[in-house]
Amino acid sequence: MDIVGAIEVAAKAGYTGIEPWIGELDTYVKGGGVLADLRKRIVDAGLVVESAIGFAAFLAEDDQERQKGLEEARRCMGLVRDIGGTRIAAPPVGVTDKTGLDPLKLSARYRALCELGAQEGILPQLELWGFAKTLARMGEVAFVGIEAAHPSACFLLDVYHIFKGGSDFEGLGMFAGSRMHNFHVNDYPANPPRETINDAARVYPGDGIAPLTKIFRTLRDNGYRGAVSLELFNRDYWKQDALEVAKTGYDKTKAALAKAFV
Predict the structure, then answer these.
(1) pLDDT tens digits along 203-249
(2) For the segment 71-122, what is each residue's pLDDT rounded down to a tens digit?
(3) Would the pTM of this model clear 0.85, i.e. be above it?
(4) What is the rounded CA–CA span in Å between residue 54 and residue 93?
(5) CA-CA distance, 16 to 193, in Å (whole number)?
(6) CATH code matching the domain that covers 3-260, chosen among 2.40.10.10, 3.10.20.90, 3.20.20.150, 3.20.20.30
(7) Domain ranges across the chain
(8) Alpha helices in the chain (DSSP H)
(9) Which residues, in sequence order, are CB contacts of 75 under 8 Å at separation 6+?
């Protein structure tokens, strides 16, 4: 499904926002699409661009690769801005297989990305990836964000990735709600175990064993008032009707939130 179809499905399913992938925007433009038209389509559908998913290697160890990563980040930020967005994910692309990196250097690199974001009018959200060897745990992400010492520094966390990375959800209480604008929600089953679970095992909120009630209450108590973004990569869902999957995800996410705040 292309980005135009995704917008239509999201609106019909009841969502109020979308979080497009940069690859989707690139495909749209390469196919002759105009981003200003896409922006109008999003607005007309009653949606807002809560964030976007990009993969710029701004943390790369090699100076040239890191510079290329920043150039890619600038390009991606421009795309997001052109469709009315103000935020983009900043995952640890380029260092997912690296260990023993100097966290202060990582903080300086994230600060440089924040400076770039300030120029472009886009907030880069430092994203935790549980499968990575760097920035897989909440403590690592918190350190890098804090030591970046930038007013725009903020975090993008994810139920599944927190679990996969090995952090205890109790640590979520250390993240100020004002430093988060988007939170990825999903669930995970009891099996496979943490060591072997992967993205494809994610399930609808409430269909797994994640402590969602605790998570949502912690976010609320931290002052979080941002978006809750459903993110799933379950291949069984891919085989089903897109609108039905979107509606089911919307309903189950709302139910999980309602359960937390009864």
Answers:
(1) 999 999 999 999 999 999 999 999 999 999 999 999 999 999 999 99
(2) 999 999 999 999 999 999 999 999 999 999 999 999 999 999 999 999 999 9
(3) yes
(4) 9
(5) 34
(6) 3.20.20.150
(7) 3-260
(8) 3-13, 22-30, 35-44, 63-82, 103-120, 138-148, 159-165, 212-221, 235-238, 242-260
(9) none
